[in-house]
Fold this protein.
Amino acid sequence: MKATILGGAAASLLTISAFAADLGISPAPPQVVVPPFTWTTCYAGLHAGGGWGQKDLTDSVGILSSIPGGFSSANVDVNGYMLGGQVGCDYQFTPNWVVGIEGVLSGGNIGGTTSFPTTFAVPGDDTASFKSTSDFLASVTGRIGYAWDRWMLYGKGGVAMVGDRYHASDALQTYAFDGTEDRLGWTAGAGIEWAFTPLWSVKLEYDYYWFGQRSVLFDDSTILMINAPVNITQNIQVVTLGVNFHAPPW
């Protein structure tokens, strides 16, 4: 009895399929299962933005301030641009939480110049100037993010490096001190990232860099031919817009 029923059902299905084929009706296509989006991947990208900060100079042993037209301290506000790239990897360990590591290298020009009257001067040489330029910023940071689907808010922090050039001179150019340094410090920041396709994302990020106070040796290239160690304290803030290409998920 069961065999008769099953045989009849099979025959009915074959009849229906044949009838549908005669009418030109195609069978329903198989459903494609789209895997859920994940931030678990490695990526590389580019960024561009602007920065600002302050550099404070203090004559640590009195050499610079003892020169006619010299000065004992100076403060300069800096600003400019940075362009660069980043590489990193993320791991989404819960539906909402993401951890990762990122390396960033930026080059550009964040600088400024200040001029001011000197406290010890000769006639016609009563002003001095101090110029500071940051040529690059680099960092290696960890980051943690909170994700909802293709959006992620994140914070980051780690070690940073800056490359600086300095110039100090008087109005008559009787001295012209130059100094350079690569300085280590730390950075902390936050941002928001949106994956507009499974492989591409854009991000907006703010970063604060602190490099503390360090002694920098200024070399005079004029007739004086002397060195002047000075203390320089600095911080930089940067806002960047970036784009990342993500490798296919692991």
Summary: The two ends are 54 Å apart (CA to CA).
